[in-house]
Write a structure and sequence with these properties.
The complex is a heterodimer. Chain A is of the alpha/beta class. Helices cover 30% and strands 18% of the residues of chain A. Chain A has eight helices and twelve strands. In chain A, strands 3-8-10-11-12 form a five-stranded mixed β-sheet, with helices on both faces. In chain A, strands 5-4-9 form a three-stranded mixed β-sheet, with no helix packed on it. In chain A, helix 1 (13-25) packs across helix 2 and helix 2 packs across helix 6. In chain B, the strands form two sheets. In chain B, strands 1, 2, 3, 4, 5, 9, 10, 11, 12 and 13 form a ten-stranded mixed β-sheet that branches. In chain B, strands 6-8-7 form a three-stranded antiparallel β-sheet, covered by helices on one side. The chains are: A alpha/beta, B alpha/beta.
Chain lengths: 260, 275
C-alpha cells in the first residue's frame, strides 16, 4: 500500500475533514445516524461514512453512485421515497454559494438561472434538506465568493417558515478551513473549530457571512493514528471503485493495485 | 417489434420532441445521442430524469436543442457541462430548473394517469418561485389546515430514450436493477431503446430476467448499438471511461474544440458505417 506513515505532519487535509465529519456523524447530541445516504461527487463525506462504519458503528450506508452492488433497485427515485418517509437520517449537501442562514445555491450567480456563472443545478437538495433528519453541509473551498452574506438564488433554504413540514436542518458546515455548527432556531452559524494554520482572524477574513465565535477558537482535532490507518486501508479499499481519482490523489493508491 | 439500424431509430424522433433521457449512471443512450446529431435533430426539448450529462451537453453543442428541463447538468468528476453553460450564457437554450424528486414525481403521476401528485419539501426554494406550473395548496387532509404542500403536474415525454443491456425479438428490454427506467418508459408516449445485443428467447419467460425487464408494451423500436452507453458505464457490462470524459470536457470548452470532437467521435462513426 502507498502512504502508510501516520505522524501528524503527514495528515492530509482530506483526512482531517473526513475525521471532522465522522465526529459530527457520531455526535451524541444529534439524532442517531442509522441510515446515511451519500450523493454524487462526495468522496470526503463518503470516506467519513466508511470511517464511522469501519470504526465498528453499525450504520447503513447507501452510496448513490456505487457502480457495483448499488444499494437501490430503483435508482435515486428510491432514495427520495425513503427520505420522504423519514428513513434517511443523514445526508450531505454542498453549495456553489452558502450563506449565514445556511441557504445553499447550486443554481448559479447573476440573473436566474445563473446568467453570470452557472452551477450544475440543485439536484435533490430542495427536497433532501427539508426531509432528511439532518444534513451536514460540506464544501472544501472556504472563501468569500463561496461563503456569502446572501446567496444569489436559493436551491434549498436553511430554515423554513412556521408551519412548513420539515424534518431536519443543517447540523454543521465543514470546510477546508474550519467547522461551524448551525442553530436553526437562530438561523445562525457558530464557529466550532479552526483547522491547523488557521486562526480566528483568518476564518473571519475568508467568510463573507457573519457568525458567532468563541474566544479562543478551538483547533480541529487531528485524526487519531487508528483513524488514519482505517482511512488509508479499509476505507480506501471501499472507495477505489467509485472514487479512483480521489484515492490516487489522497491515499496514493490505484484501482489496478486493488485488483491485483 | 422492429429491430432497426441505429440511424433509422434516430429519425423516429421528430423535431421539437420532448425527449426524456436518463443520466450517465443509469443507462444513458450516448450512442443514440450521437446518432441524433448525425440525423440533424432540431429543437429538441430535453428532460433530464432526473439530471443530465454527456448526451445532453453533446446535443446542445450540436445545435439540436431548444430547451432543457433538469435538476442538474454536469459531467460528474469531469466538471461542469461546457456546451450547456455556453448555450445558457448565449441565451440559445431555455432552461427550466427542477429538483430530482419532482421530476420522478411528475413522471409517476403520468404513469398512473392522474393529473398531479403532491411532493414534500421544495417550499422555500427559488426553483418553486420560477415554476408557474407547480402549485402550492393547503393539505386538505390536515386537521385544522396550515400544512402547505407542493402539487406537481403529470408530465408525459413524447419519447423516452435509453440504452439497455439487451432486448428480445418481442421488444422486451432488460434494464437490470435500474427499475427507475420503467417509470420513464411507462410515462412516455413511446420509448426508443438501444441495446448491447439481442437476447435469444423471451425475457419475460425467465423469472430472474423478468424482474429487470420492461415490457414491449412501452417500446416502439429497438436498435443494436454495441458499447452504446460509452463513455458512460453500463450495469456490470463495462465501466465508465474517465479519460474520454476528460477529453470531451477539454475539447468542448470551445466551439472549435467541440467541432473537433464531433469530427473525431460522432461524424467519423457515420463515415465508417457507410463504408
Amino acid at each position: 500500500m502507498g502512504a502508510a506513515v501516520d505522524t501528524p505532519s503527514d495528515i492530509r487535509p482530506e483526512e482531517r475533514m473526513a475525521a471532522a465529519l465522522a465526529a459530527l456523524i457520531l455526535d451524541p447530541a444529534a439524532p442517531p445516524a442509522r441510515h446515511i445516504a451519500v450523493g454524487a461527487a462526495s468522496p470526503i463525506p463518503a470516506a467519513a461514512c466508511w470511517l464511522v462504519r469501519k470504526s465498528g458503528h453499525p450504520v447503513r450506508l447507501s452510496l448513490l453512485h456505487k457502480p457495483s452492488g448499488n444499494p437501490f433497485t430503483a435508482g435515486t427515485r428510491e432514495l427520495f421515497d425513503l427520505t420522504g418517509q423519514g428513513r434517511i437520517d443523514l445526508f450531505f449537501l454542498g453549495g456553489g454559494q452558502i450563506d449565514g442562514q445556511a441557504n445553499i445555491n447550486l443554481i448559479g450567480t447573476g440573473d436566474w438561472p445563473g446568467r453570470a456563472a452557472r452551477f450544475p443545478g440543485s439536484f435533490g437538495s430542495a427536497f433532501m434538506y427539508l426531509m432528511a433528519n439532518r444534513t451536514i453541509l460540506f464544501r472544501e473551498e472556504h472563501s468569500p465568493r463561496v461563503m456569502v452574506p446572501r446567496v444569489d438564488h436559493i436551491s434549498a433554504p436553511g430554515v423554513s417558515a412556521p408551519g412548513v413540514f420539515r424534518r431536519g436542518h443543517a447540523q454543521a458546515l465543514v470546510t477546508g478551513r474550519s467547522v461551524f455548527r448551525f442553530d436553526p432556531a437562530r438561523a445562525r452559524f457558530t464557529l466550532a473549530s479552526a483547522h491547523p494554520a488557521e486562526s480566528a482572524a483568518s476564518i473571519r477574513a475568508a467568510t463573507g457571512f457573519d457568525y458567532d465565535a468563541p474566544d479562543p477558537v478551538p483547533a480541529t482535532a487531528d485524526p487519531t493514528p487508528d483513524q488514519l490507518a482505517l482511512l488509508r486501508g479499509p476505507v480506501c479499499d471501499e472507495m477505489l471503485e467509485t472514487y479512483p481519482e480521489f484515492c490516487r490523489r489522497v491515499f496514493g493508491r490505484s484501482a489496478t493495485e486493488a485488483a491485483a | 417489434m422492429p429491430i432497426l439500424p441505429l440511424d433509422r431509430l434516430a429519425v423516429l424522433v421528430p423535431d421539437g420532441a420532448l425527449l426524456a433521457l436518463p443520466p450517465d449512471n443509469s443507462l444513458t443512450p450516448a450512442e443514440f445521442a450521437r446518432a441524433l446529431v448525425r440525423a440533424g435533430a432540431r429543437n429538441l426539448r430535453l428532460l433530464g430524469v432526473p439530471v443530465s450529462g454527456y448526451a445532453t451537453d453533446l446535443l446542445i453543442g450540436a445545435g439540436c436543442v431548444a430547451s432543457v428541463q433538469s435538476s442538474g447538468v454536469s459531467l460528474g468528476e469531469a466538471g461542469f457541462a461546457p456546451r450547456f453553460s455556453a448555450a445558457l450564457k448565449a441565451g440559445t437554450i431555455a432552461m427550466t430548473d427542477a429538483t430530482c424528486p419532482a421530476i420522478h414525481t411528475m413522471l409517476q403521476a403520468a404513469e398512473k394517469g392522474v393529473p398531479f401528485m403532491p411532493l414534500r419539501g421544495v417550499l422555500g426554494s427559488d426553483i418553486l418561485a420560477h415554476r408557474a406550473d407547480w402549485k402550492v395548496i393547503d393539505n386538505p387532509f390536515a386537521a385544522g389546515g396550515g400544512d402547505p404542500i407542493v402539487l406537481l403536474p403529470a408530465l408525459s415525454p413524447d419519447i423516452a430514450a435509453f440504452h439497455a443491456m439487451m432486448a428480445d425479438t418481442e421488444g422486451n428490454v432488460y434494464v437490470g436493477r435500474r427499475h427507475e427506467l420503467a417509470t420513464i418508459a411507462h410515462a412516455a408516449r413511446r420509448s426508443l431503446v438501444t441495446v448491447e445485443r439481442i437476447y435469444d428467447g423471451n425475457l419475460l419467460e425467465d423469472e430472474r430476467l423478468a424482474a429487470g425487464t420492461i415490457s414491449a408494451t412501452y417500446v416502439e423500436a429497438v436498435a443494436v448499438a454495441e458499447r452504446g452507453a460509452w463513455p458512460a458505464a453500463l450495469l456490470d457490462a463495462y465501466s465508465a471511461d474517465p479519460a474520454h470524459y476528460a477529453e470531451y470536457a477539454r475539447l468542448a470548452k470551445t466551439e472549435d474544440g467541440f467541432r473537433t470532437y464531433l469530427d473525431r467521435y460522432v461524424r467519423r462513426a457515420a463515415a465508417e458505417a457507410a463504408e
